[in-house]
UniProtKB/TrEMBL annotation:
<dbReference type="InterPro" id="IPR034457">
    <property type="entry name" value="Organic_radical-activating"/>
</dbReference>
<keyword id="KW-0560">Oxidoreductase</keyword>
<dbReference type="InterPro" id="IPR012840">
    <property type="entry name" value="NrdG2"/>
</dbReference>
<dbReference type="InterPro" id="IPR001989">
    <property type="entry name" value="Radical_activat_CS"/>
</dbReference>
<dbReference type="GO" id="GO:0046872">
    <property type="term" value="F:metal ion binding"/>
</dbReference>
<comment type="subunit">
    <text>Monomer.</text>
</comment>
<keyword id="KW-0004">4Fe-4S</keyword>
<protein>
    <submittedName>
        <fullName>Radical SAM protein</fullName>
    </submittedName>
</protein>
<dbReference type="Pfam" id="PF04055">
    <property type="entry name" value="Radical_SAM"/>
</dbReference>
<keyword id="KW-0408">Iron</keyword>
<feature type="domain" description="Radical SAM core">
    <location>
        <begin position="12"/>
        <end position="223"/>
    </location>
</feature>
<dbReference type="GO" id="GO:0051539">
    <property type="term" value="F:4 iron, 4 sulfur cluster binding"/>
</dbReference>
<dbReference type="GO" id="GO:0016491">
    <property type="term" value="F:oxidoreductase activity"/>
</dbReference>
<keyword id="KW-0479">Metal-binding</keyword>
<comment type="similarity">
    <text>Belongs to the organic radical-activating enzymes family.</text>
</comment>
<dbReference type="InterPro" id="IPR013785">
    <property type="entry name" value="Aldolase_TIM"/>
</dbReference>
<keyword id="KW-0411">Iron-sulfur</keyword>
């Protein structure tokens, strides 16, 4: 279900001005998630649904100045039929490149979208060390499978929100072997000032210097460009 639309964004599709479409619902429960309204069913039900026709009409209006469309969430791959229809119509009616943001938990959905050439770029999140994915209600084996599906088929970036409770040098070392093939790894500053899914855990926040130290450390472990975001 589509639950949100932003007409113009300068930051969601690297190198492009984009429109952003938000899907509701998520199978993960990351304590640091600040899209609480899009994740918790009891909140989600109060957000009106937006139809594909309406979304396409809004994109059409902006076609002159946007150069891409981002589909994000929540987790868009939980709605494979709607996602496919939306992507097919974007391709057919406005012919814009599509970036998909995903937690990587649905490799079979991504595989079928790639088969139909519906996705131009993927951002996949690495949220914690593999053995800690169950704390997010995830399973890193699915992320690994998604990586094997996308590597060599579509450009992708790995995004890491640097939440101290989950990500330190030690965790980056464990995740580094899974980063090869990415166009870049983006370490994003975790802003600890918003309402989060689990306010009871002390998640912490890194200083700009600490984030630079994580970046330098990771650069020593991978052959992929590492960038910092929102620092
Ligand atoms: S995967 Fe994303 S949307 Fe889902 S709970 Fe985690 S941070 Fe929130």
């Amino acid at each position: 279900m589509i639950k949100g639309f932003r007409g113009t964004s300068l930051v969601d599709y690297p190198g492009k001005i984009s429109a952003v479409i938000f899907f509701g619902g998520c199978n993960f429960r990351c304590p640091f998630c600040y899209n609480v309204d899009l994740v918790l069913p009891e909140r989600l039900k109060d957000i009106p649904e937006i139809g594909i026709d309406e979304v396409l009409a809004e994109i059409q209006k902006r076609k002159g100045f946007i150069s891409g469309v981002v589909i994000t969430g929540g987790e868009p791959t939980l709605h494979p039929r709607l996602l496919r229809s939306l992507m097919e119509r974007i391709k057919a009616e406005v012919s814009l490149p599509i970036k998909l943001d995903t937690n990587g938990s649905k490799p079979e959905v991504i595989k079928s979208l790639l088969k139909e050439n519906l996705v131009n770029f993927i951002a996949i999140d690495f949220k914690a060390a593999p053995e800690r994915y169950p704390e997010l209600r995830g399973n890193f084996a699915q992320i690994e499978e998604t990586l094997s599906v996308i590597a060599g088929h579509v450009p992708f970036e790995i995004r890491i929100t640097a939440v101290p409770y989950f990500i330190s040098h030690n965790e980056l070392e464990k995740l580094a072997p899974f980063m090869e093939g990415a166009e870049r790894v983006a370490i994003q500053r975790f802003m600890n000032e918003y309402e989060k899914l689990n306010p009871e855990i002390d998640l912490g926040a890194y200083s700009p210097e600490e984030l630079k130290s994580l970046k330098v450390f990771l650069e020593g472990k991978v052959n992929v460009p590492v960038v910092l975001r929102n620092v």
